TrEMBL record:
Primary localisation category: membrane
Residue ranges crossing the lipid bilayer per the database entry: 21-41, 259-283, 304-337, 357-377, 398-418, 424-449, 470-494, 716-737, 758-786, 798-822
Cellular compartments annotated: Cell membrane
Domain ABC3 transporter permease C-terminal: 262-375, 719-828
Pfam families referenced in this protein's UniProt entry, alphabetically: FtsX (PF02687)
The protein's name: FtsX-like permease family protein
Entry GO CC: plasma membrane
Coiled coil residues, start to end: none
Recorded topology in the membrane: Multi-pass membrane protein
Highest taxon listed in the record's lineage: Bacteria
Originating organism: Sulfitobacter albidus
Keyword Flavoprotein carried by entry: no
Length: 838
């Protein structure tokens, strides 16, 4: 075989233009573009976060403490290394204006805030002027949502705790808002000193202190981080710096984009079906050309190389189009994207995501084109001269199967390496492969069923013709079921996952969840608080517990992360409480609770599920840093902690003696009738201004809003997959247009009316759409169940409205595509069609 000769033949074949390859190029370009666009947006956000790291963080570095301010040693360390240090306190509180009350996230800042960037206010003014004291009342600024909820106007007064504030302006931009993470309430900014008389920062109350450092130019951030962590290893200090000013945002963006790229791969898989169909259809039309080449002495390798080179060049064209489209689209849409993104972004051309998308496209095209190309290699010249392309072997020879398997393995390895989550990659690609297998089996079953039904449909000619067409060669049925079915499967799975998440959060919880969480209740306020609620017949239940926060620093004398890895319990501080006896609903799974009045060495009752994940056993010793003090205790029992019902739950429980003297407050949950909630909130906040109330329904709504954004993002990815499937569907309809025209001509000659033929076409399309939708529904339900059960760990129930829409969508899409190419078949004259047929 001469490669030069094969290249010359391929070049001559390409002179015929792109006829037959428009679907090939469209499917490949769309799939690659979707992946390239997602990767480019991710890279743009990462570039924006890196560029604006200091502004997002509010300084070059930040040290954060829980429920305390820095001590003298910590303050001295920061002052010695920074040119300026800004102190901030953050906590939740109730903003009260007249009879209106609303939860707010308070940020108490000093005169240096912000060290980097600026706060934008409306009306325009400096932050110093907005927070200044006028006529004895300090100023404050709020986000618009809170202003509207309280019915305030600039110049009105409101209270935080026992301190009155004057609303000076609305916050329109807060430079470090992205680094703050998820908040249950809108923001209020005040001066730190203005809170001294509020009673909100009493010992034991729930707040975080943050110290932003303005460092000298050229400061060694890694060295400073190592020094701070070594010097204050057991003090509960957490370090962040401008290298990753918003780590939560960066991690979220990375995980979401990884998932969307995997959804994009499912779109490429759908496109692969179209690519394979286009190649198979093209080679079928080249029967005479291939036969002529074989007759002239061309061997099978030369023919294979000829078309492999030709399709390879077209693949490069399709991938290039996709890369260009996916790389340029985020830049063109950057004004819209930047306006909608809550974080800064720097959109541009980023090579890494474009290369990633190109590699995915090349591998997918190779996998889906090798099979039909391999079939050419097995067909003899005599068979080709008889126009019996369909008689070629269905399965290629073993070497081709092995190469295809290797390409699939390379695609999986590439996806896992790029997105960094092997389990997510294997789950997603395994689901795609499972759906494809299910759809192939379904397509074969539909053809077999249609062949069996057709002879039995006497007296129903339109339905009989439809079944006969579906049960024929099967190429059209297979393409429709595979392309549309896989696209609908992805959309169905996304719909089921989203629906079950919403149901778990907004549907099931309110039936068992408390009405309110009350936090920061002082010990001396508990008797009056309890009396108010116990005397209310609308209150069904009250649960209260001491509330502290602690960081697990060591396990059996070793750093906690060395023992338990990156478990979420070790990521920051966790709830700690004390109790004389187990609660009424407590279930001790192993070990024994301490005796009443126990005053010996500290003991710990740990959450059973988390203990198993961390590898903890009875007798292990944990060191917990609480308010800067290390407490080491022995695990003597494990208990079940159920977070799903929004009740009080603590990872760590200790005897009262272990935490004696530690300043703390109480947390309480109240279960009440809906009509009594407003009066309870009014009375308690009025009597105890320092107490913060969190309405569970409001918290659920905030989480639901976040889920809505996630669902929208994943739905866009699934929609791209579905669009690719629709393109393949249109291609299949276009490829069968000539066959339907000939079929209609024959039926007209035999006396069939145009109406009955049209009904036959509609029934054929509707049946295939129903089959594709039904299989997609099954695949989507299975995929949704797997993700909900094993990844989200939530209960699962089929969301039927979403499910039925998938089936309806399948029927609608196939009918529309079929009718779009049926007009010529219905209007063509039989004589002209039959005379043109050899």
């Amino acid at each position: 075989m001469s490669l030069a000769q094969a290249s010359r033949l391929a070049r001559r074949e390409l002179r015929g233009g792109l006829r037959g390859f428009r679907l090939f190029l469209a499917c490949l370009a769309l799939g690659v573009a979707a992946i390239a666009a997602v990767g480019s947006v991710r890279s743009g956000i990462e570039a924006g976060l890196a560029r604006e790291g200091a502004a997002l963080l509010g300084g070059d570095a930040e040290l954060e403490l829980t429920y305390r301010f820095a001590d003298a040693q910590e303050s001295a360390w920061m002052a010695a290394r920074a040119t300026a240090v800004s102190e901030i306190a953050e906590f939740r509180s109730m903003a009260v204006a007249g009879d209106d009350r609303a939860l707010t996230q308070v940020k108490a800042v000093d005169d240096l805030y912000p060290l980097v960037g600026s706060v934008a206010l409306s009306p325009e003014m400096s932050l110093d002027a907005a927070l200044a004291v006028q006529d004895g009342t300090p100023g404050a600024v709020m986000e618009r949502a809170l202003i509207d909820r309280l019915g305030l106007a600039v110049g009105d007064t409101f209270r935080l705790g026992e301190q009155a504030f004057r609303l000076s302006a609305e916050i329109t931009r807060e430079p470090d808002s992205a680094a703050a993470g998820f908040a249950l309430g809108p923001r209020t900014l005040v001066r730190r000193g203005a809170l001294d008389a509020s009673g909100l920062l009493a010992p034991g109350t729930l707040f975080n202190s943050k110290y932003r450092l303005d460092l000298p130019d050229g400061a060694d951030l890694p060295a400073l981080e190592a020094d701070a962590k070594a010097r204050f290893a057991n003090s509960g200090i957490r370090w962040r710096d401008a290298r990753n000013g918003a780590p939560g945002v960066a991690q979220f963006v990375d995980r979401l984009s990884a998932f969307l790229i995997l959804v994009g791969l499912s779109g490429l898989a759908v496109g692969g079906v179209g690519v394979s169909a286009a190649v198979r259809s093209y080679l079928a039309r080249k029967t005479e050309v291939i036969a002529t080449l074989r007759a002239l002495g061309a061997d099978r390798r030369t023919i294979f190389a000829t078309y492999f080179i030709q399709i390879g060049l077209l693949t490069l064209l399709g991938v290039t189009l996709g890369v260009v489209l996916g790389g340029v689209a985020p830049i063109l849409l950057s004004p819209i994207l930047e306006a909608r993104l809550p974080v800064p972004a720097a959109f541009g051309l980023f090579p890494a995501p474009l290369v990633e998308a190109a590699l995915y496209g090349l591998l997918t095209a190779f996998i889906f084109t090798l099979w039909p190309l391999a079939r050419v290699d097995e067909v003899r010249a005599a068979t080709l001269f008889r126009d019996a392309w369909s008689g070629a072997a269905r399965l290629p020879r073993l070497p081709y199967l092995l190469i295809t398997g290797g390409a699939v393995a390379a695609l999986v390895a590439l996806a896992g390496w790029f997105n960094g989550s092997w389990w997510l990659t294997l789950w997603t690609l395994g689901g795609i492969a499972g759906a494809l297998v299910l759809l192939v089996i379904a397509a074969a079953g539909i053809r077999a069923l249609a062949r069996r039904l057709a002879p039995r449909l006497h007296g129903r000619p339109s339905l009989r013709w439809a079944m006969s067409a579906i049960g024929g060669t099967g190429e059209g049925a297979g393409a429709v079921v595979l392309s549309l079915g896989l696209g609908l499967s992805v959309l169905a799975a996304v719909g089921q996952i989203d629906g079950n998440l919403r149901q778990a959060i907004a549907g099931n919880l309110p039936e068992v969840a408390p009405s309110y969480f009350f936090v920061d209740i002082q010990r001396d306020q508990m008797p009056g608080y309890t009396e108010r609620l116990e005397n209310d017949p609308a209150v069904r239940r009250i649960d209260s517990a001491p509330m502290l926060r602690g960081v697990i620093t060591q396990i059996n004398g070793r750093p906690a992360r060395e023992v338990a890895g990156n478990h979420w319990v070790l990521d920051g501080d966790r709830g700690v409480t004390y109790a004389e006896a187990p609660g009424e609903d407590a279930i001790i799974t192993r070990g024994d609770w301490w005796e009443p009045g126990y005053s010996g060495p500290p003991q710990i009752s740990f959450a059973a599920e988390e203990a198993g994940e961390m590898g903890l056993t009875l007798g292990d010793r944990l060191t917990v840093n609480i308010l800067g003090r290390d407490i080491t205790g022995e695990i003597t029992s494990f208990q079940e902690v159920d977070y799903s019902n929004a009740a009080i739950g603590f990872i760590i429980t200790m005897p009262p003696s272990a935490l004696a003297g530690a300043p703390h407050t109480f947390i309480s949950t109240v279960y009440a009738e809906p009509e009594a909630e407003a009066a309870i909130l009014r009375d308690l906040v009025q009597a105890y201004p320092n107490v913060t109330a969190i309405r569970v329904k409001d918290a659920i709504d905030r989480v639901a809003d976040v889920l809505a954004g996630l669902a929208a993002a994943t739905s866009y990815g699934a929609a791209a997959t579905l669009l690719t499937g629709f393109l393949v569907l249109i291609g299949a309809a276009a490829a069968g247009a000539d066959a339907r025209t000939f079929e209609a001509a024959v039926l007209k000659t035999m006396g069939a009316t145009r109406r009955s033929i049209a009904i036959s076409f509609i029934l054929r399309a509707a049946f295939l759409g129903l089959a594709a939708g039904a299989v997609a529904l099954l695949a989507g339900i299975l995929g949704g169940w797997a993700v909900s059960t094993f990844i989200m760990e939530t209960d699962y129930a089929v969301i039927w409205p979403s499910a039925l829409m998938i089936v309806a969508g399948g029927i609608t899409a196939t009918v529309l595509a079929g009718l779009g190419f049926a007009r010529r078949a219905l209007t063509a004259r039989p004589a002209g069609v039959l005379r043109a047929r050899e």
